[in-house]
Amino acid sequence: MTLTTISGDTPAPFAFGCMQFGGRASEADSRAMFDACRAAGIGHFDTAYVYTDGQSEQMLGRFAAAERDNLFIATKAKFDGGASRANIRASLDESRSRLNMEVIDLYYMHRWDGDTPLEETFETLAALQSDGHIRHIGVSNYAAWQVMKAQAVAARFGTRIDVIQPMYNLVKRQAEVEILPMCASEGILPVPYSPLGGGLLTGKYTGGGAGRLTEDARYASRYGRPEMHQAATALADVAKELGTDPATLAVAWVAANPANPVPILSARNADQLAPSLAAMRYPLDDALYARLSALSPAPPPATDRLEEA
Q1: How many CB atoms lie within 10 A of CB 279?
Q2: For residues 23 and 269, is the Cβ–Cβ distance under 8 A?
Q3: What number of other Cβ atoms are within 10 A of residue 94's Cβ?
Q4: For residue 111, what are the contacts with CB-CB under 8 A and spacing of at least 6?
Q5: DSSP letter string over 223-255?
Q6: Model pLDDT, residue 204
Q7: What is the per-residue pLDDT across 61-78, written as a single tens digit (0 to 9) for each?
Q8: Helix segments in 83-201, DSSP class H
Q9: I need a surface site. Which of 15, 51, 140, 186 has the fewest CB within 10 A?
Q10: How much is the CA Rg of the chain, to the nearest whole Å?
Q11: What does the pLDDT read at residue 217?
């Protein structure tokens, strides 16, 4: 699946996540990161209804206004309220207002809703697409079976899921089991978030640094396993040996997966973002990819028949 802007440009195969805009990142820092992304060639920007109480969408809308048609803008439906027709339409209307955009390039369901019929969800999305309010449909945090079940329903309304946004990084590799192979097989573009593992893979925590893993209980739990920290330390050692930054290697490793994912970069300020942007041009060959992959265990296949993997 190849994404294009309204003007027909193909964005660089990296995206920037605006979750920090208006939260940990001030407006000045947010603008500086947006400008750094544009200077590096990134044109794909990702936000969500729920991020920073709407400030993320509002800031991105202001920053993007001058070159809207040359950018690819993604947002996600309201996290709470499910995937009902009313919730989708209400949250999209609010997101379009905040972004000050008539058309959203990519609109995600933020999470699976097992209580709303898929027919209701995808009939609504198909209508919004037909009316020109959204260009592509995506899903976030869906399992592979959920994507394929939804895809079959979407086809009945003349549309399809083009993009999935899973979590994926060197210490969170579950997407390799079924999601990334599904994407390669079915022409669905993976746009993974958290390539730095909530900051773990930047190496800052090996020196006692602070960040989301020390400030947010969810991230502390998500990345709290000792083997994850061991992998982060090993990654920092490899980066030091190679004269580069651990974040550069972590992002480049995600981008090098055979499913051709589009990693979502993020940071609090432009200085913190720079090593991730450097990954866009880092020469990660097969040998180094294999070396980095060996720093953490690959998950077993879904059938768990290791001898056939």
Answers
A1: 24
A2: no
A3: 14
A4: 79, 140, 141, 142
A5: T--HHHHHHHHHHHHHHHHHTS-HHHHHHHHHH
A6: 79
A7: 999 999 999 999 999 999
A8: 85-99, 118-130, 144-156, 179-186
A9: 186
A10: 19
A11: 79
Beta strands at 72-76 and 189-190: parallel, antiparallel or unpaired: unpaired
Q: Active site residue: 51, 108, 168, 282, which one?
A: 51
Q: How far apart are CA 28 and CA 23, in angstroms?
A: 12
Question: H or E element: which one contains 61?
Answer: helix 55-64
- What is residue 209's predicted lDDT score, i.e. its pLDDT? 64
Hey, is 200 helix, strand or coil?
Answer: helix
Question: CA-CA distance, 186 to 190, in Å (whole number)?
Answer: 11
E strand or H helix that includes residue 85? helix 85-99
> Quick check: 137 and 98 in contact, CB under 8 A?
no
Task: Provide the terminal-to-terminal Cα distance of the chain, rounded to the nearest Å.
Answer: 26
**Regions of the chain short of the pLDDT cut 50:** none
The verdict on whether 205 is a catalytic residue reads no
Task: Give the torsion sign (CA, 170, 172, 178, 180).
Answer: negative
Residue 302's pLDDT is what? 86
* Span 170-216, pLDDT tens digits: 999 999 999 999 999 999 999 999 999 999 999 877 766 666 776 77
Q: CA-based angle 67:187:154, to the nearest 5?
A: 85
Q: Give 192's Cβ-side CA count (13 Å radius).
A: 29
C-alpha–C-alpha distance, residues 16 and 35, integer Å? 11
The residues facing 75 across adjacent strands are 107
pTM over the 0.70 mark: yes
Task: Report the SS3 class of residue 214.
Answer: helix
Q: What H or E segment, with its residue span, contains residue 93?
A: helix 85-99
- How many CB atoms are closer than 10 A to CB 284? 17
- For the purposes of burial, counting CB atoms within 10 Å of the CB of 248, is it exposed (0-12), middle (13-18) or buried (19 or more)? buried
Q: Which residues make Cβ contacts (< 8 Å) with residue 94, sequence separation at least 6? A: 49, 54, 78
Please choose, from the candidates 61, 6, 70, 83, the residue with its C-alpha nearest in 3D space to the C-alpha of residue 38: 70
What is the distance of C-alpha 67 from the center of its chain? 22
